[in-house]
Every structure is written in C-alpha cells, then in structure tokens.
Amino acid sequence: MKSSHSLSLFNGRRFPFTKPIPWQLFLTACLYFLTVPTFALTPLTGVTQIWSQGKGSQSSHSCAILSGGGVKCWGWNNSGQLGDGSTTDRLTPVDVSGLTSGVTAIALGWNHSCALTSGGGVKCWGDNGKGQLGDDSTTNGNTPVDVIGLTSGVTAIALGWNHSCALTSGGGVKCWGWNSSGELGDGTATQRLTAVDVSGLTSGVTAIALGGYHSCALTSGGGVKCWGYNGNGGLGDGSMTSKYTPVDVSSLTSGVDAIALGKAHTCALTSGGGIKCWGYNDMGQLGDGSTTDKYTPVDVSGLTSGVTAIALGGHHSCAMTSGGGVKCWGANGSGLISGVTAIALGFGHSCALTSGGGVKCWGGGGSGQLGNNTTTESLTPVDVLMLAPEINVVGNAVSIVDGDITPSITDNTDFGSTPVGTPVQKTFTIQKLGELALNLTGTPIVTVTGTGFSVTVQPTTPVAATGSTTFTIEFAPTAGSGVVNGTVSIANDDNDENPYDFAISGTGLPATPSGLTATPVSTTQIDLSWTDNSADETGFKIESPAGTLITTTAANAISYSHTGLTCNTTYTYRLTAISKYGNSATVTTSATTGSCTAPPPVTDTDLTPYQETGLAVRVTIDGSGQGQVLSSVPGVDGKSIECSSANQSTGCQVNFAPATTVTLTPIPAEGSTFSGWGGHPDCQKESLFITGGVSCIAYFRTLIHPITLTVKGRGKVKGSHFDCQSDTTCTANYLEGTKLSWPVVRPRPSWIFGGWSGDCDSQGTVTITKTTQCQVTFLDDPNIPNDRDGNGDGLKDAYQDNVVSLRDEFTGDYLTLEVDKNCVIEDMYTDLLDVLPNYDQNRQYAQGLLYFDIVCAKTTVSLYLHRINKILRPFTLQKYGPTVPGDVNTVGWYTFPNVTFDVVKMGTQSVLRTRYELVDGQLGDNTGVDGHIIDPAVVTEGE
Fold first, then answer.
1. Rounded CA gap, 138 and 120, in Å?
2. Which residues partner with 361 through β-bridges?
3. What is this structure's pTM?
C-alpha cells in the first residue's frame, strides 16, 4: 500500500556567509578537530578559592581549591606548573598530583605554583630555575615538593614571577627564589634556594602580596611596607629606586584592609571600602584616568567606597563590589558580572568565583588559561569546564552506540541461535574515555531484561581514566521462547549517557534429541528411535551425512522406519529437532542392513518333497518392489508355482519330477520392475532342468519414489502435482521418470525468493529417478526492516502472518500493516498513483497506493506510517474501488468512514497510526472472493 503522509522534509542547512573565511583559520580549525578528541564537558563546580597568574597572554595558568580541599589547575604547563606530572598544557582543569584534599590556600607565580596545607606546610611545583620551589635545588618539579623549613607554622603564601614568600603563624615573613632587585627583602641581591627572613618583618604582619619583582606586607596596624623592584614606583615611597629591605608606602601607614600586586603596580583596599593604587600605569591599570606612572598612592576613580576585594594582573586591575559585581580597568578595559565571591587575575586574563561555586574566566586564552577547552580569547566571561566522565561500551572490539536498537552478531548484541540447555555467553567491555574516572552507580551495576538473559559477571567500579572493565551476559533460552529481545542498562555518572542502554536479542532453539539408535530389521529396512527432549519442536529432520534429506517427522515423533534400502550397506543418519525459529544441534548414528549373500543351493534335506519321487523348487520374492513368479508346468502334485509379494516372508514351494524342465516367469506389479534373480546359479537361466532341489529369489524394484519438498522461510510454491507452504516439508510419491515442476514461487510480503537447491535444478524442476529431496529458500528482504518491530509488539514483523513491514518504493521510508491475529496478510505491495484515474490533484499522495490481500472475513486494520515527527495538516483515508460493494459502475475515489488517526511512540520515534475496520463483501472490499479482503487505499494530507 502506498499509504503515507506528505510532509516536506529537508536534511540540510544553509549558512549565509557575507565575508570570506581566512584559509589560516579554516586550516587551524581542521587540524584542531583532527588532533583533539571531543569528550563531554560540564562546568567546574564546588570551588572555594581561585588564583590566576602569568607573564603573557600565551603563558598563563589558573588553579582552584574545591570544597574537599583538592586542587585543580589548567592552562600553561611548560615547566610543570599545573602539578599533574606532565608539561602538557591543559585546556580544562586537572588534579594536582598528591593534592586531592587538605589544601587551604594556593598562590601562583609566572610558571610555578604553591599550596598551603591544612597542617600549615607549604608545597611547591613547576619552574625552579631561580630556586623558587624552596627545596634547596634548581631542578624543576612537575609534582609538589615540600619547602624546606616550612612544613608547618605557615598561615599564608604569595608568589611573584620568580620568587615566593610565606607568612608564619608568628606574623613573620620568609621568602626564597630570585632576588636580583631585592624582592626577598633580606638586604641582598642574592638568589636563595631556601626560605630566609625578610629584614625587619619577623612579626607584626597580617598579610603579604607579591608582584612581578616586588613584594609588600600589610602590618597589624593597617600600614603597608614594600620592597624590591621600583623602576615604575611600585613601592609607593615616592621614588624609582629599588629597595632591598621593606620601606613604608607613602601615606599608607594605617587604615588599609588588603593589598594586591600586579606586574609592577600595587593597590590597597582601605578600611572605608576605597581603592588606592601606585606604580606602573601604561595601560591605565591605576584607574586614575591617566596612563602616567605614580610613585605614591592615588585614588581609583569612582571606587572610593563599596569595594570588598581587589585583584591585580599584569596590566589590569579588578575590584569586587559589595553587590557581588566585578569592575575592571587597565588592559582590555572593563567588565561587570554579578554573583561573585572572589576574583583572581593573571597577566592577560581574569577569573571570578561565583556564589554557586563555579568559575568564570575571560581575556587571553592562548595556553588554555580560561579553562573552557579552547585556546581562544574571550571578551566576556566563560565557564571553566571539566571533562565529564565519558562511557563507551564495546562488544567483540566494536563500539555499541548508546540507545542501539538493532542487535547484531558483529558487536555481540545478537547472541544468535542456541538450543535449550546450551547457554551462550558474551563479554562486553566498558571503556572510560577522557581523563576522569567513571563511576558505575547501579545496584546491580548492569541490569538486563528479556527471558533467559542474565548478568553472570558484573563490572567493577570506578573505572580509572583511560581504563576499562568487563561484564558477561548469558543467554539460556527456555522452552518455546523463540526470539527473545532484551535491553542492557548501565547506570553511571556520564551526564549525557546515563543510563547507557542497548538492545540485545537471541533465539531459543529446540533441545537436542538424545539416545538416537539405529536397528537393522532386514536387508532393506533400518528402524530409528530417539528421545524427544524439547517442548517446542515442530518435528524432526533426518538426513544423510551429506545433508540429503531422508524425511521430516511430525512433532513429538520418537521413531522412524527407513525402508527400501540396499542389503549389506551401512547407513549413517543425522537427526535434528526443528522449529520455526531454527534447529537444534545434530546427533548421529549408523547401522548396516542385513547380508544379501545368496543362500546355498537347496538340497533334499532342506526341502520336504511332496512325494518320494518329487524334487522341490522354492521361490521367494525380495526387494523394494512388488510382483509375482509363475511356473510353466505343474508339479507332481498337479500344481504350478504361483508366488507373489504376499508370500514374501514364507516363499512358495512345489515338487517336480526329476528330469523335468521348469520355466519361471517374473511378472512385476504396477509401479515395480523385475531386477534379477538370486539363489541357485541355475535360476539365472529361468528354465530349470530338475535334477535336485533348487531355491530361487526373484528381486523386484519399486518404480515409485518419494520426493520431499522443503520450503525454508516464508512463502509458497504451487506446481502441477502438489503445493507447499512456509517453513514446511511436503512429501509425495511419484513414478520413476515423472517430471515435476513448481511454476508458481511466491514469497510472503517482505520476503524474497532465494533459490532452489537439492535435486531440483535452478528452475525448480526435477525428473524422478530415485528418492529425491528439493528445497526452495525464501529470505528476509534486505531492503526492508524485517528485523524491526514495526507495530511495537516486541516481535519481528517478518515472522508474523498478521504483520508486514514494507519499504516504500517512492519515499524510501517504511510502513507497517497489522491485522487481527487470526488473519493472514496474503499479499501486500505499493504502487504509484498515476496508474489510477481521477485521483484528487489537490491532495498529496506521497506514497501512492497500498494494495493488500487479507485472508479473513473481518478485521481491524492498523497502518503505521513511520518517521513522522509531527502532524502539520489533517489526514484522511482515501480509497479507490466500488462505493457500492460489487457494483463496478461505482468505482472511483472516496473517503473511507470511521477512520481514526493518532501518533504512537516507538522508542524515540513518533509514528502515525491509521485504524479502521474492513468486512468481506462490504464497503472497502474490492472483490467478491469469499474469505478475502482486497483493499487499495491511500493516506493523504489535506489542503
């Protein structure tokens, strides 16, 4: 049927480009996506502190402390300053090795980092060329090391570009690292590999801050002291002379709550909520409306009150207001966001800690310092992202897509066919993609539905980064289960694939028969017997070792007699239980028919003479055929030999006088032929000169041979002699020389003809010369979704007589026809509408007509039109046929009454369902054939 909707579809987009794309940008994008794997990302959360630092837009990094005290860092990593054991830049946060808990504060330098532990100790990592790690060496460390002498008793830390300082619990300041401008404050310009006291600041300090090459301390009285490089006035003492010991900042000996240092400028937060800045001002970072360096503190315009925190970068400054907003000035201008609890500035980028525990950054991103998985600058705040846990499931080394609904052998999701009592196991691998551990959260971890399916080995959790774990599913079908569909579900913390589901299937076959025994009964017969172990077999198939079919039995059979055999011959048999879903395993046995050696000549002692003077002639009949033997003269008792197949077991005996010549005449019955003599050699002469007792055997061979025709799959064949239907074996007997053919070979809807095999030729013809076996095969049409469940009942459409799925020749989509279970869809096909006259040009007939022949007197028809996302216009059901049943003069198009349309969900797909009732001989039936409903119809979309 070409029943369909006619919604317009498109599968592409147009993107208007008004400007050419630079080839360099295009090439960069291609290379990036070729080399950077894409994983699921999620915003970083649970952050309590942040810090940013750097010496350029391409050489900056950031770190954050999480609520559990762990440290994550991202950005530039040339010297190991991210602490993850590598020197690889990171575009998203990674854990600092050994610092997943117990950290209370962090500080960053140009390319080194330090952390303050909950025990008051200091650990540093990264560049150590100037001794800035404090471990008495100049060896870089890409994981944290202890600062010598500062494993406890520290309350705060601060880092410059190449030097580091700590505030002790006694209020003293200790520094180490580079000291070319006196930034260590010990009165020298000597580099220090371990911590030394800052001159005059062994107590009374409440906070410290470090710039590029200068340092400052906030005293308990609210004053500010600074030392180190002063070429731009960053020390605030009114001069441009570097100082090797601390000096007071002019006019700021009290009233200061906090201090912050940039590359070469300094700012202080006053107790009144205002900001004063001094030093380097090339980009306006002092905020006084000019770009002139200032050697003593000046007010920041517009920020003389209402400020709660300050942070300085290389050439810019930011303040957090009492309303949770951020104002920035200097390089890259200003910005404003709300809901902020802390800020941190690097050389050319800025970061803010939000009230929800997230982090947003903006500015330069050349080394990934914005943490959003790119190296692109952003002029507005962007979320710092975490690589979310990413799950992948593999079967047989092939990835299984989350939500997969098409089980296959390739990826282990189709368990194939197995007999009852022979379980099949498949092992699957859960892979962790990306850099974060994957947690499997289900209890149990993996669940499975479907009768006969079970999880025999569960995976382990968590799955380490780039690691994997396995689980095993067993399919042990129950009797009569046939095709079983199930779903595997894996609960996990992957935010976009939880749960991870995929479909599995398996087919239960009959249990293997046992105890097969072959017993020779005679020279021409062997009896077979076995034990039937199955509850769902539809019969048994007996074959030769070469696969030639001998016979198929009825269901529940336990024996078979094989007759018409050749004497003294060994026969081997293969026995298989069969069902509509497939066959069991095969068992074999062998036996040898009785000996066909001619009996010795009969002597007087073997035969009882009728008279003393008579000599006995005995005739017996053997072989697969029928017949009789007559003699030409009567015996001494006046009788002639008249022996037929009825006397086969006893034979016939007549006594003749010595020296009598007796002629024996074999006469085959209809359908048999005489094939020769056995017994005494004189029997071959047929004219016997009686000189002693003689025994003769007349062999008759049948000319009637059985032919077995097996139809494998769904379809039927019709011939001049007999017909055969789907998944059936048909047997008949024919005279030798008879030529058989089946000119009608008709697949069921959604099946195709697969060919002939066995003794029949490729055209399905055979001449009977022996016991014959032919097979015609019908296959699931690969061009339509036979393995799909088109009506949502959980069963394959192709194996149901009342459900057919068919790919439409016009649209390439498919549709499904379902009728009542007691009905059979005999035929179904689609056709284009232009073969019919007078169809409505104002309507859209996207799929033309659907023709079907239903063997039923009455049924409800359900038509499923797949791949419809929504209904844009009203639908009607148009039919072509007589509006008055049986009256050909009323043939034409009409709208069928009492039709319902609705949309049903099948998985993630919306399917349009049309339902109406048809009755044989009434409106909608196109013929008067009793017991058949033949109906052409089309679903159309209205104007």
1. 24
2. 351, 382
3. 0.46
